[in-house]
Every structure is written in C-alpha cells, then in structure tokens.
Design a protein that fits this description.
Layout: H1 3-15, E1 42-47, E2 53-58, E3 65-70, H2 84-92, E4 96-100, H3 114-129, E5 134-140, H4 142-153, E6 160-164, H5 171-189, H6 203-220, H7 224-236, H8 254-266, H9 269-284, H10 296-301, H11 306-316, H12 320-329, H13 337-346, E7 357-364, H14 372-383, E8 389-397, H15 404-420, H16 429-438, E9 446-447
Parallel strand pairs: 3-4, 3-5, 5-6, 6-7, 7-8
Antiparallel strand pairs: 1-2, 2-4, 8-9
Helix pairs in contact: 1-6, 1-9, 3-4, 5-6, 5-7, 5-9, 6-9, 7-8, 7-11, 8-11, 15-16
Length: 456
C-alpha cells in the first residue's frame, strides 16, 4: 500500500474515534422553562459564514441542556457526539446535541477557526431552538484542546466543559516531544541518511518520512541494540508500555514493556504523527518545534521510562551516555518564530478557566499521552483557576477508548458542579466508577491515577 494511502487511512481512522461520598449521581432534572424554548425538534443543519457546517439533534422531550461537541483531528465534517452509542444514549435521556465541522477550507488542524465556529454554532442553534437551561461543551482529542479553549473563554456562553483524551498540552509541546522521538530514530537508527523531519511540503512528504522511520524501527527491533534505541525514542514520545490486547507488564519486566511499546510503532503510529505534523505546519505557517539547545541527557532523566531505557542499554552493552551526547551535539533543528507565535495564539490552552472543566483520560493513550494532563494542570494552577479543574482517569489502553457509561457518568459529575457550584466528591474515581456502573450500560474502569510529567 502506498505511503500516502496509509496516511489518509490513518487520518480517517482517528476521525472515527477525543469528601468521600460514593452515592450514584442522580440523573439531571427534566424540567425546562418552556417559555424560552421553541417546539423545534429533530435534525437541524446549517452553514456558517466561513463555510463551516453544523448539525444539531433536538429530542421532542428536550431536558433543556444543550451539549456542544468539538470533534478531533481528521476530515472536517460536522459531528455532535463522541460516538454513535453516546449520541443515542444522550438523545434518549433528553439532551440536545450540536457541533460544527470547523472551517473546511484549510488544514485539518483547524484551530484557527474551531473555537470561533463552535461559538457561532451555539448562536445559530439557539436562534432556532431557544435559550437552553444550560449549555455544556464536550471535546475529544484535538477537540479536547478546543474544549479547553471554550472553557477558558466561554464564560456566559457555556456553563461547564467535559474533556476526553484532550490534546491539552497544545500544539508546540506535542510537536516538540514527537520531534525528539523522530530525531532519535533518524540519528541513531539511520545515521547515514538525511531524513526530512520538519517543514513538509505535502502529505506525500510526510508519508515518506513516516515510511523511513517505521522501517528503521522494524529492523531495529530484531537486535538488543536496536530495541534499546527504540525504547529511547519511545520514552521521548511518551509512549505507553501497555498495548491493546495485552496484559499490563510487570513494573520491572523491561523486555515486555519494550515489546508493547513496539506494538504501537508496528500499528503505524508514526504514519499518524507525520501526517499530523504536516497539518499543524500548514495551519501555523511553518515549523513550531526544535531540537537545537535540547539536552537529551536531562530530557531522559525526566522521563518515567528512564529505568526501562537504562536497563535495555545495559543488556545490549550500549553506552547510553554516548548516544545522548550524540543527540545533544547534533541537534540543529530550529523553529520558525512566527509559527511558534501562531501556535501559541491558536493552539494552546491552560491560560485560565472561566467555567468548570472535568478532563478524563485513559492511562495508556498512544496518540495523546496521559502525561499531557500534568502540563495542563500545572498551567491552570499557575493561572489561579485550579479549583475549577478536575481530572479523572480510566484504566485502559488506546486513544479516546471510553465506554458510553464512563462518558455519561462524567457528564453527570459536571452537571452536579454546574448546578451546585461545588465539586464535592462527584469527580473522584470511586464516585465516577459507582455512577458509571449503576447505569447498567457497557462497563467502566475509573481508577485512582496520577500521570507522570510530560517528557518534552
């Protein structure tokens, strides 16, 4: 299969996807102030000034809550729920659902328009259905970053926000840790080749780089020395050592941890990463990441996977310090300052919150590492709005791999915070798990968890 075809398939696949009280959270009240609502129901559609399309589903027994969904990276098509199962469940409970495509005329990294288009969608929908009793935002993956921006800027427009698997560390942190991993593969596994890592001219350019890097990782996996270097790249990529269909490796089972990190590479993660890089560069007008000035010894020291890397280097008889010195010495990639500024303006979050935000993440997310939540929380706390943020974790492998029950339980916790002005204990792992299980839907795996710092 041509590399460019694999890239398109990967992008489309992702788009198909972002106190100690233990009592079950009550379902939201169904009472609606009918004086502020019209009788419009069913599927509504429209087009915004920039060409973005929107859709809305309004049940006949609308409970007065409007949910604004921000979709993830991929084709710019309007969606109003994370999955069809969630959409069906929420409509059955009386919620109205809406969401936009974002501006379809530019990059799939549509952060230049997404927040604006989501607010415009609210205006368009409420003009047809009337003023909601409350409006809540939900976002997944790249849409989780949009969702965090809505929570930052949406006071008076939305009442609360629920993020899932959100890319909340922002575009520049994302591009930097991915570049560190790509550069490690290129420099240590393809030392004689000049591999293009940034400033892609086309999707084919990105796909060609993904093919080279993936082939290098596949070949390296056959030897102890290669596996050690693959583990080093995986550490910089913040790649989980737990892959789908496998039992979680023991804490010191270094060989199995590395094997499961390799599973993610074998499944084509670099094809997605390079395709995403092209889209982000297209959006921000250049390369917003760099290797020059990075101390790779210090970078590894801050990674939770450092013990794994050191163990494999010892087993392979390789000099880890020498490899890290080589990476630091030969790091010459610089960013385009204008692209960095644009990414900061359009593609970052955490500068504050105006409404309550509950972020939920799987503990082994291959595409948006759970460690992003650490960086985001630190930024929100630094802004002085830490009391508005809660974070919760689901013990599962994969990106945005949530059950319907987990989503509904998180939504009810957010509603409690919006209605009462207090989080109380509703966003604790035990309360969320109890609430999700009580729904009798498709199970839940909320767990106590504290993500490690993001390696970047």
């Amino acid at each position: 299969m041509p590399a460019s075809t694999r890239l398109r398939i990967a992008l489309v696949a992702l788009a198909a996807l972002t106190s100690a009280t233990l009592t079950t959270l009550p379902a939201p009240a169904a009472a609606v102030d009918t004086a502020t609502h019209t009788s419009v129901s069913g599927r509504l559609t429209g087009t915004l000034a920039d060409g973005a399309t929107w859709i809305a589903d309004v049940p006949e027994d609308w409970n007065g809550t409007l949910l604004l969904f921000s979709h993830g990276f991929g084709p710019l098509v309007a969606r109003n729920a994370p999955t069809e199962a969630v959409r069906t469940e929420l409509l059955g409970q009386g919620y109205a659902l809406t969401g936009s495509s974002y501006d379809p005329n530019g990059s799939m990294w549509a952060l230049e328009s997404a927040e604006r288009d989501q607010f415009a969608t609210l205006d368009a929908v409420t003009a047809k259905i009337g003023t909601p009793r409350r409006t809540l935002a939900i976002g997944q993956s790249m849409g989780g970053l949009v969702n965090a921006q809505l929570a930052r800027d949406g006071g008076g427009r939305i009442d609360g926000a629920l993020g899932q698997c959100g890319l909340v560390a922002g575009a520049t942190d994302l591009e930097n840790y991915q570049l560190d991993a790509e550069y490690t593969i290129a420099r240590l596994l393809l030392p004689e080749q000049d591999v293009k890592l940034v400033r892609f001219d086309s999707p084919a350019d990105a796909a060609a780089t993904a093919g080279l890097l993936t082939k290098a990782v596949t070949a390296a996996q056959a030897t102890p020395q290669g596996r050690a270097r693959v583990a080093l790249a995986a550490a910089f990529l913040n790649l989980p050592a737990w892959s789908p269909g496998k039992e979680r490796p023991a804490p010191t089972d270094w060989a199995e941890q590395q094997a499961q990190q390799y599973d993610w590479f074998a499944q084509g993660i670099l094809t997605f990463v390079e395709g995403g890089r092209y889209a982000i560069e297209q959006s921000v007008g250049g390369n917003n990441s760099w290797t020059k000035g990075v101390d790779y010894t210090r970078l590894l020291a801050g990674s939770q996977h450092a013990p794994l890397v050191r163990a494999l280097y010892r087993t392979a008889g390789l000099d880890l310090r020498a490899d890290l010195r080589t990476l630091t010495k030969d790091a010459t990639i610089t960013a385009d300052p204008a692209a960095v500024r644009t990414a900061r303006r359009t593609s970052s979050a955490g500068q504050g919150l105006e409404v309550p935000l509950l972020d939920v993440h799987t503990t082994a997310d291959n595409l948006v590492p759970v460690e992003q939540e650490s960086s985001f929380a630190a930024r929100v706390r630094a802004s002085g709005d830490g009391a508005l943020l809660r974070q919760a974790y689901v013990e599962r492998q994969g990106h945005c791999a949530f059950t319907t029950a987990e989503t509904v339980a998180a939504l009810r916790a957010l509603e409690h915070r919006v209605d009462t002005g207090r989080w109380d204990a509703v966003a604790t792992p035990a309360a969320l798990q109890r609430s999700a299980v009580a729904l009798g839907l498709d199970g839940a795996a909320y767990t106590p968890y504290r993500p490690a710092p993001l390696t970047r």
